[in-house]
Amino acid sequence: MSENFAYPVGLRLSGRRVVVLGAGQVAQRRLPALIAAGADILLISPSATASVEAMAEAGEVRWERRRYQEGDFEGAWYVLITTDDPEANAAASAEAEARRIWCVRSDDAEAASAWTPATGRSEGVTVAVLTGHDPRRSAAVRDAVVEGLRDGTLAAPRHRARGPRVALVGGGPGDPDLITVRGRRLLAEADVVVADRLGPRDLLDELPPHVEVIDAAKIPYGRFMAQEAINNALIEHAKAGKSVVRLKGGDPFVFGRGMEEAEALAEAGIPCTVVPGISSSISVPGAAGIPVTHRGVAHEFTVVSGHVAPDDPSSLVDWAALARLRGTLVLLMAVEKIGAIAATLVAHGRAADTPVAVVQEGTTPAQRRVDATLATVGERVAAEGVRPPAVVVIGDVVALSSRDHD
Ligand SMILES: C[S@@+](CC[C@H](N)C(=O)[O-])C[C@H]1O[C@@H](n2cnc3c(N)ncnc32)[C@H](O)[C@@H]1O
Question: CA neighbours within 13 Å on the CB side: how many for 191?
Answer without folding.
Answer: 15
